[in-house]
Amino acid sequence: MEIESMVANSALIRAREGGGGKGRSWKWREMLRFPHISQCEDLAMSIERDYYSLCVKQPIGKKLFQLFCQSRPDLQNYISLQDALDTFETKCDEERRDFGIRIIQKYLMTASRVWSSIPAGTSSMTAGSKDLHEYLSGEPFLQYQDSMFFDRFLQWKMVERQPITKHVFRQYRLLGKGGFGEVWACQVRATGMMYACKKLEKTHVKKRRGESMALNEKQILEGLDSRFVVNLAYAYETKHALCMVLTMMNGGDLRFHIYNIGAPGLEEDRVRFYAAEVCCGLMHLHQESIVYRDLKPENILLDDNGHIRISDLGLAVRLSESRMVRGRVGTLGYMAPEVISHEHYGKTVDWWGLGCLIYEMTAGQPPFRSRGEHPSTSDMERRILTQQEEYNDKFCQEVKDLCSLLLTKEPRQRLGCWGANGKEVQSHAFFKKINFRMLEAGLVEPPFKPDPRQVYCSDVQDIEEFSTVKGVILDQKDNNFYSKFNTGSVPITWQNEIIEMGCFRELNIFGPSGSRSPDLDC
Ligand code: ADP
Ligand code: MG
Ligand code: MG
Questions:
Q1: What is the interface pTM, i.e. ipTM, of the complex?
Q2: Of 115, 166, 269, 336, which residue is least crowded by CB atoms under 10 Å?
Q3: 198: enclosing H helix or E strand
Q4: How remote is the CA of residue 217 from the centroid of ligand 3, in Å?
Q5: Which atom of ligand 1 is nearest to the CA of 248?
Q6: Per UniProt, where does ATP bind (predicted)?
């Protein structure tokens, strides 16, 4: 390895090791300084007073609403119940029953004190949770909006809405190259959080008419919140590029793991685990009516702990009412038969893609092409449409059965497309060992943990330099598009960053208790 690469790698490794505030700029408090509450008036007028968004979905909003409830003796019990219900979701199956019974006895019996003000007849956990929110979204939510806790929420929102420029970040090594530009490791100066910054060169986007594709990727990502899909944290522009700041995935992509470490392919437990997490990711996308269309090993990335996330949503599409789209997109070797034959299609193509992925992880080569073989486009199409894939002895009976059900050429007969969607896939015998509820909650230990001292991507000098295009002139129409892209922080991801990096805890100090303290802006 060349010296330049070693220096770049060790700088990155040092940066991502920094926890406990180590990666923060010495000016971080100033960077996250609250505006005076009088400066939040416009925001107070315009912000949508939606309980679910303000007190459940937004992480800082949820924390402040809980602090408000804790400050009120008559509401403290509701918060303990909410905590208990949250904990219930993280319990393994064996502990669940007893824990559930205790919650019911303590909080949900009609006779118990906390529940007495809520309409009687509630006995189950889900109904309990629903009633809880119904109650809190009434009077308590109104009172919250008059409290100093809501003032503080508005202050945090103002900090969240600060304009984002390249100066918000420190830049580390180049991680990879995409169709419109490079992907770099970066770190937020104020919090120390590491991210991957995907840059789209403005001239490239314009020359290849990638505007709608770029905007599509950004808009789909900002609307998602799944542990199995990369999160968008910021979208901003520089003089030359549009930038998407994404969850940093330090463990490399599945392509790297299938081919660059030992003999091609992965052991069965890893295949099962990655396939199960990808399945959950696809289900989250499909629930939002999004078809992914680009499933292949290089688009599935590993994080520090060995969990995967789906990345690169450039080809993803939101289905309209008709539930169908057309368009021959994707990567040839992984395209479903209905895509190749120009039919209308929907979510079915992603279940085909999952079949290809499971096949490739197991066999160490994709289903319709040997490694190193480069068939012509028409040959490849013919194989996908007509050829029966082959299974060698690396395939156990269950994985073979699963692959052949997913790689069914007729979409209506394919597993995942029979009417119960992903549930059909999850209940296949290959996944018998997987507890999907625990997996969804992030509580299943991955079978492989990436080495924190290793950088799982090509050496910097081996990543081809991004060429520049000449003769493209940017004008006002381009600026209109850039301003649609350049929306700054994405609320949920940003708020999670502030909490996770300890900034919320250190900055969210109130004055003398209960009062709207004059030093709210300290
Ligand atoms: P494109 O849409 O142009 O193919 P990608 O989103 O696939 O671009 O990114 C290109 C490369 O950058 C990937 O193959 C990967 O090596 C790297 N990369 C992308 N996103 C991340 C991320 N979140 N974390 C780490 N590396 C990433
Ligand atoms: Mg890609
Ligand atoms: Mg892409």
A1: 0.98
A2: 269
A3: strand 194-201
A4: 8
A5: 24
A6: 198
Q: In the structure, what pLDDT confidence band is assigned to residue 410 with cuts at 50, 70 and 90?
A: very high
pLDDT in tens, 176-195: 888 888 999 999 999 999 99
Sketch out the chain's domains with CATH numbers.
Answer: 48-144 (1.10.167.10), 163-249+465-489 (3.30.200.20), 252-451 (1.10.510.10)
Looking at the annotation, which residues are catalytic? 294
Counting from 1 in the atom list of ligand 1, the atom nearest the Cα of 217 is 2
Q: Is 263 left (phi over 0), alpha (psi -120 to 50) or beta?
A: beta
- Distance CA(379)–CA(388), nearest Å, equals 14
Q: What protein residues have CB closer than 5 angstroms to ion ligand 2? A: 312
What digits encode the pLDDT tens for the residues 63-101?
A: 999 999 999 988 888 888 888 888 887 888 788 888 888
Task: Give the other-Cβ count within 10 Å of 490's Cβ.
Answer: 24
Which residues lie at CB < 5 A from ion ligand 3?
Answer: 312, 314
At residue 226, the pLDDT reads: 96
Residue 332 CB burial class (10 angstroms; 0-12, 13-18, ≥19): middle
Say whether pLDDT at 292 is over 80.
Answer: yes
With tokens 């995935």, the residue in question is: 249
pLDDT at 224: 95
470 a known binding residue?
no
For residue 368, how far is its CA from the centre of ligand 3 (angstroms)?
23
Mean pLDDT confidence for 232-252: 96
Q: Which ligand is nearest to the CA of 245?
A: 1
